[in-house]
Amino acid sequence: MRKLTYLLTTILLTSCFKSQDVGIKSDAQYELEKITIPENFDFNTSTTVSIDLQIPEAYRKATISFMDKSTLEGGVKIGTGSFDSEGHLHTTLTVPETWTSIYLESNYLGVPSFYLPVMGDEVELDYQDVFDQKVSVAQREQISTKSLNSSSNKRIASAVIHYLADNVDSNGVPDNLEPVNDTFDGDFIGDVNASFPESRPVPTYNPEYIADGNETDIVLNDDAEVFITYVAEGAGYKNVLGFYKYRVGFAPQTAAEIDTIFVAFPNISNAGAGGNLIPGNKVKLGEFEAGTAIGWVLLQNAWKGSNGISTSANRFYSEPSFNPEDSKNQHNVLLKDTQREIVLLGFEDLHREDRNQNPNRYGSDEDFNDAIFYVTATPGDAINTTNIRTITTSAPDTDEDGVDDNQDEYPNDPNKAFNNYFPSSSGYSSIAFEDLWPNKGDYDFNDVVVNYNVNLITNAENKVVELDMKILTRETVAGFENGLGLMFNFEPSKISSVTGMNYTKGLITNEANGCESQQQNAVVIFYDNAHDNLEQELDIHFEFSQPIEPELLGIAPFNTFVFANGVRGKEIHLPNELPTDLADESLFGNSDDNSSVGANNYYKTSENLPWAINISREYAIPKENVEISTAYKKFLQWVSSNGSSFPDWYEDKEGYRDASKLKLEN
């Protein structure tokens, strides 16, 4: 097993598909018979990746979603997992062979999201190394704030921009960070997530946060040093946090009356996510007299690297009347934590009424957690908290399974927590068969074509408790009345029930749990005649007796097979998949089949050609008697290269297909 360990990498790797010459045989009828096929090639466009993650104690209530790209980029989620009490997450994912990376996304505040390269079948990551990343200022381009402060006399409205730091690096990290970061424990991070849960609109879930009369600025009762500590960000922008100050009773009445905006954090972006901030980074705002008030301003996506701050960026103030919306104009929330002597500051970084005013037209989710900080003062009670609401100290977990409701896809069921789809929540993959086994077919792979969608439903321990399979038979052009089923490599007793099958020929005998009789392994027959199920989606639902590890199931669609023309023993599987106990072993090694029972070598010809292929996406079906390699122009290169060239041969890309040889309805 190849094993790659990634302790700290956020580089998205891309792969190059390179074509290679195909060795030609002269005495062959079909193009596939003219090439040399590697003996171990399995004609599968999917693979499994084992994921092992470790996370520090403070973030052990986090969940991680596994995606092809971020939600903001329109990514597809294929699974979700949670950490155990030791901070370990283990799961196994089925992914297309084309994936060179997996995007790890978390909606738990404080946990960074990034791409994890996939170059083997096992990947490890320790989040502690991500949190510890601190690139030396000397390694980054240095930008003098003196030049930025005076550059073109930059102003926002009438306010002068003034950086607190003498220098910032190209990632927007200031050089005036306190020498020792603040540290967080799990209780604190839990409280932050309970107070500002991701994708939970404040007007709906915590309307008291934005009620009239709440304070949105920091007001000092005593002379004090004031500090601000970075906690988390949940944004896709490179936002800037600034502040302005005024005497209580003399607040500016318009944004134009603010004379100076002091920049505390030039780029509120995590390490590896557009910046280099580390949770716990802390900046001293200054020493202030009693009766001073500190107002806030967030500059939307305003950090421009060596060019400093964009003065044309949207800006959102702690004074709602300064903001651009007509009514939904509050953009920050203050929450007090009297025990810790801190005040949480949460910002919403999107125009709340008109998405067209936001870069990329992102709509506001109104959760006010796009930038999270806390403010402290010395002395600790110098901040007036009279009109500041109290933090929320526990997130709801209705089913008490250890997964907070806003991260639990089954918040009312303690036995279920997450959906894990392949290929996606709504898409299909396909499996295609030639049904003349043990004789060769015509390699059009259209005798039986089945779309499938798989959902592994897991519990809080990332073990599978239920399995949903959607089965849609799209083609059965052959005259045979073929059946369809699957086999798992474990005993039938592990399945408590399976439902959704459709039998019309009376060929199948099942046990009480829905598994086929006379089988040592769990075998489920979906139907016994493809013609009676054409274009009818079956919802096959499995319930397991005990939660099982996902790797025990294997690669979706698992060991799916057909049996030909009503003959139960005439099974046709993907290459090298095991037959069931009811398969007719006398057929192995006959005609064109080169199976070797003793060597566990099944369902291939002597040239290593298969009778079935698995395609990670929905398959455009070749016309009758059209060899697959003439309809899909990169198929031969994929096969002869052992899958390394053109693993995306089935995609609808320029030069990949001959549309005239594919069925028009596809």
Automatic annotation (TrEMBL):
Which residues lie in Acidic residues bias regions?
A: 397-411
Q: Which domain of life is it from?
A: Bacteria
Q: Where is this region: Disordered?
A: 392-413
Q: Which Pfam families match?
A: DUF4114, DUF4842
Q: Which PROSITE patterns match?
A: PROKAR_LIPOPROTEIN
Q: Give residue ranges for domain DUF4842.
A: 462-650
* Positions of the DUF4114 domain: 288-377
Record-given protein name = LruC domain-containing protein
Please report the organism this UniProt entry assigns to the protein: Sediminitomix flava
The organism that produces this protein has a lineage beginning with: Bacteria, Pseudomonadati, Bacteroidota, Cytophagia, Cytophagales
